[in-house]
Structures are given as structure tokens and as C-alpha cells.
């Protein structure tokens, strides 16, 4: 198993450092410009999306009086640029604190985007599903390395790059998730998503090499996590 994982890590360096997304053909802009695009696109996303009855994200329709857009749910922006929205009446009581090295059981639909300016319209483009346990297995993902990579993985890596937490972890997601509390429910429980975390590219992988999670490069990609923490266990 270790050899397999290390092989994937080695392969990911080549893939993520030189491969571009098939649908990302826009010219590269400066980091400062990309950051501005990320910020503007995130704010637009908050204005154009809402929760359904189970907490899934859907398009906001102004004429639907049952909907409340994310922007009206007191989104919080962290110094890193990460934005999180707590879904009302969907949090555990009292819930359990989430530690930075905990083993999570995470139900999530997560989509990654590139924020671009097309014909003077800045918005998220090139959506790509990063994780969807709801439509997939229907049970939470266990101990995702993009939240906290195992120390044994770092210790056994053969390349210096693969020995770094930043090669695996999405820093902004890790930061914001600890603002929530975890449930303590079985994997088979029906989901009721807790909220949304929007991670701008600078708080994800930016333009750095990273582990090959999905077969595409996450260069300049922002992440939108729609999630529920079923359980958290100290490592």
C-alpha cells in the first residue's frame, strides 16, 4: 500500500506541475489579478446560490420566496480570504470541536472552479467535481488527506516535495472547518449538510505542485465545499 501511494505521489508531481486543465485555456494572469477574480467570483456565488431542504447548494431564484441566498446568511470572511456560511438549524447540539489533526468522517459535495474574466464578466468557470459522497457511496469519506495528511505518509515519502503538508492539504478548508462542530452519528445516517466553505485559490494550492487527487491540475482553482462532519476523532 505504501509503495502504491508513493508511486501516486511521484506521478502527481509531473502531472500537476506541467499539465493544464483541458478546459482551462485562458491566459495566465498575475497573482494579484487572480486573487481579485477569486474574491469577486466568491461574492457573486453567494448572491446566486441558496440551500435546499437538505442543505445542498442550488441556484437562487429571487421569485421563490422560500429561498434565502447565501449572502443573506451572514457569511464570514477570514483573513485568508476563505468564506464560510453556517446553515441555520443544521448544526449539532452541542457538537464536538474539530481538531487540526483529527480523523474526520466527511459527507461532502465539493466543486472546484477557475475564476476568470470573460468579456468583462468575472465569474467561476470550468466546474469540476472534486468530491461527491452523496451521489457516490452515500457514506462519508474517512480521514481525507486534503484536511490532514497522515504523518506516516510524510515520513515515508521519497521526495522532499511530498514530505510537505502543503502538497496534500487544502489549508483554507482546514482553517474554516474548525469553525464548525462535528456531529457524532453513524455513517449510515441520512445527511443534513451544515454549510459551505469557499476557498480561494490562494488558500488552496495556488500555483504550486500538489498531490494528484483527481487527475487534473488545481492551479488557480477555488474550491466550494458543501458538507457535513459526521464524526471527528482525535488522532
SSE blueprint:
Elements: H1 2-18, H2 31-48, E1 49-51, E2 57-59, E3 76-77, E4 83-86, E5 96-97, E6 103-118, E7 121-132, E8 141-142, H3 151-156, H4 171-177, E9 181-182, E10 195-199, E11 221-233
Antiparallel strand pairs: 1-2, 3-4, 4-10, 5-9, 6-7, 6-8, 6-11, 10-11
Report on this model:
The protein is α+β, with helices and mostly antiparallel strands and 235 residues long. It has one domain (2-233): Roll (Chitinase A, domain 3), CATH 3.10.50.40. Helix content is 20%, strand content 27%. The protein has 4 helices and 11 strands. It has helices at residues 2-18, 31-48, 151-156, 171-177, and strands spanning 49-51, 57-59, 76-77, 83-86, 96-97, 103-118, 121-132, 141-142, 181-182, 195-199, 221-233. The strands form 3 sheets. Strands 3, 4, 6, 7, 8, 10 and 11 form a 7-stranded antiparallel sheet that branches. It has a two-stranded antiparallel sheet with strand order 1-2. A two-stranded antiparallel sheet has the order 5-9. Mean pLDDT is 91; it is low at 1-24.
Task: Describe the structure in brief.
It contains four helices and eleven strands, in the order ααββββββββααβββ.
